[in-house]
Protein 1
Amino acid sequence: FVIFARKSVIQLDLANTKKALIVPAFETLRYRLSFPKSKAELLSMLDMGTLFTFRYHVWTKGHAPTNFAKWRTATTPYRVEWEADFEPYVVVRKDCPEYDRRFVGFGWNKVAHIMELDAQEYEFTVLPNAYMIHMPHAPSFDITKFRSNKQYRICLKTLKEEFQQDMSRHYGFAALKYLTAENNS
């Protein structure tokens, strides 16, 4: 992955353009896995049910815009558009917007970051031969709190609303799509 990412960074001129290179994410439910050495091997593991697209069973919206069906046969990078709740793993320039510090722990850190990148007109480009695999692990303290504590969820909702208002103030009319998307999701 590292070698391919470096080549992509150079070929796609990441240093001089506003691009967010999307690394398609997959997951396994197995604690031990022989990491696929190629895209073909990964696709075989997907077909056999050893791997799945990331969070397909609990949060498909987070990675759906990656367009995994297209990725299966892609040989060149392709562009995708922002959608509500999109939270891909990305490679970006050092001078990109930082993660919003309001979102620590569990919830909305990547979503807010991708929203900010979109508002600043970053182009989302999916890498056709790169991938990452999420391995199973015990739930974090923060996700446990999110799931079990209503107050945590209320606080997160308040922070999301505050963030969206800040986006509207900063980006004006262009940020209305974020409010509309949130209300429809």
Protein 2
Amino acid sequence: YKGAHVKPGFAEHFYSNPARYKGRDNMFYYDTIEDALGGGQEPHFDGLIFVHSGIYTDEWIYIESPITMIGAAPGKVAEKVVIENTRDSTFVFMEGSEDAYVGFMTIRFNPDDKSAQHHNAHHCLEITVNCSPIIDHCIIRSTCT
């Protein structure tokens, strides 16, 4: 309710069958996390994003507001919701994300080129000045030296 759901392939099905999903007017579905973060203009969106099972690769996740992003999957949630990047920092928290919350997911930085010279400014989590997000029940991994 009032949440944005990131579930690849489901958004098209949801929006093309409005009669089947009657009563879910306050729910929004997106194929990517980037789209969900950009969907903050929806009138009923209150900053809650559920990221469903899957591997989300190479999305630009820059958080500039106090959103709440939670993994949603059966069983061991953090192992089934994987967000990784191979070229840039996976999560970047900017000023304005002081009260942001990210929980129950795996966050990976897994570059193709593992050398430090190409990725010395890229990380799993990049937290800039004037913000202190809450990172809770997450598995954080980097294969870069």
Protein 3
Amino acid sequence: QEEKKQLTLKVEELERKLESTSAQNIEFLQVIAKREESIHQCQLRLEEKSHECSSLARQLEMAIEDAKRQVEQARERAVSRERAAQSKMLDLETQLSRNKTELNQLHRSKEDAERRYESRLQDLRDRLEQSESTNRSMQNYVQFLKASYDNVF
């Protein structure tokens, strides 16, 4: 009976550990969900910046066409308007360059986040596998103890 009591205590302890491991797994899944949401938000921002860059590129093309028409209309007015268009073009190119730089940074940030996510996910998978392996070992040990107990009595 004493052995049975000890075995029962061990089984209860193993069940508590299993519950604890399950709770940890749930926490890890919540962390993963948060990371996925963060990645999703980064992707949305990346798409917004891509659309903004496309819009700025179209604006730049429109400004260039406008400058060309003005040059054809009047040579005297074209000089001053060409300067204004070139200034605007320079601003747009600077803005486009900044946006491209920011887009590249977002790409790198997204890739870094994905690498960290994949690393963390693999770590969690490894831990889960280890936890499951430990759980199986404990279950096998409990089965062994049960079988031994049955053989004794």
